[in-house]
TrEMBL record:
InterPro entries the record matches: Nucleotide-bd_a/b_plait_sf, RBD_domain_sf, RRM_dom, RRM_MRD1_RNA_proc_ribogen
CDD domains: RRM4_RBM28_like (cd12416)
Subcellular location: Nucleus
Keyword Glycosyltransferase tagged: no
Domain of life: Eukaryota
Gene Ontology cellular component annotations, sorted alphabetically: nucleolus
Database matches in Pfam families: RRM_1
Domain RRM: start-end pairs: 120-212
PROSITE patterns in alphabetical order: RRM (PS50102)
Keyword terms: Nucleus, Repeat, RNA-binding
Protein name in the entry: RNA-binding protein 28-like isoform X2
Source organism phylogeny: Eukaryota, Metazoa, Spiralia, Lophotrochozoa, Mollusca
Record flagged with keyword Nucleus: yes
Length: 257
């Protein structure tokens, strides 16, 4: 399991003898076991491991349910790091607080059924202010390390009212990176999230799949569709002096060549 991945809080124990495993299940499994197994003060819940065929069937069922849901909620946990996890070792208190606040915001937003988790767009936080869109793109291309990887968006959000002497707007420290393929986005997240080798141990990127608003996207699409205008070609005059032109948007506000 990658260090940055969320701990699933489960594991496996294999016995040499089948009889011993059956005895363990008999005494330690169920809602009210005869004997409780404790670890760090917590009770462990014991059950028999599933066969490979059973696991495959569950995966298929889970995939079907995920597709029906359409909100990709299973991706909301990607990049999650909490206090006590191995990935949290070396993180500053400030960065841990940033992650906690981000998690709380996501939970609150996901209560809205119109909010879904994008499977190709990443939200990137804790970006050093000197980093450019191009540099951010290079970081993620390198993280994926696949020639087939296509990044369709690499954008750092900026305060347009504040610019430097060079005329560059001030970075807000976060941005978005979009991929054509989900697997590339997932690989990029896992290889860049909390990685101290990118911008140093004190400026680790906080990566998560972006939350999108279904209604807002529908409104945006309708606006785009409305702005699209039909173009048609006409011929003015006749004979050798014919003039060909394409009219766009009708007479009012139209353009022609």
């Amino acid at each position: 399991m990658p260090e940055n991945a969320a701990h699933k809080r489960s594991g496996f124990v294999q016995f040499v003898n089948k009889e011993d495993s059956e005895k363990c299940l008999e005494r330690c499994s169920g809602e009210t076991p005869k004997e409780k197994i404790l670890s760090g003060g917590r009770q462990l819940f014991v059950s028999a491991a599933l066969s490979r065929e059973q696991v495959d069937n569950l995966k298929s069922s889970k995939t079907e349910n995920t597709n029906k849901d359409g909100r990709n909620l299973h991706l909301a946990r990607e990049g999650l790091i909490r206090v006590g996890m191995k990935a949290a070792e070396g993180l500053s208190k400030s960065d841990l607080n940033k992650r906690l606040k981000a998690e709380m915001r996501r939970r609150q937003k996901l209560k809205d059924p119109n909010i879904f988790v994008s499977d190709t767009r990443l939200c990137v936080q804790n970006i050093p202010t000197h980093v450019t869109d191009k540099q951010l793109k290079e970081v993620f291309l390198k993280a994926v390390n696949d020639k087939k990887c296509v990044i369709t968006e690499s954008r750092i959000m900026r305060d347009m009212s504040r610019t430097s002497a060079q005329g560059v707007s001030r970075s807000l420290g976060y941005g978005f990176v979009s991929f054509q393929e989900h697997q590339h986005a997932l690989t990029a997240l896992r290889n860049t999230n909390n990685n101290p080798d990118i911008f140093g141990p004190t400026k680790r990127l906080i990566i998560e799949f972006s939350l999108e608003n279904k209604k807002a996207l529908e409104v945006k699409q309708k606006r785009l569709d409305k702005s699209k205008v039909s173009c048609f070609t006409v011929i003015i005059g006749g004979g050798h002096g014919d003039v060909y032109g394409s009219f766009s948007g009708g007479i009012r506000g139209g353009c022609y060549f």
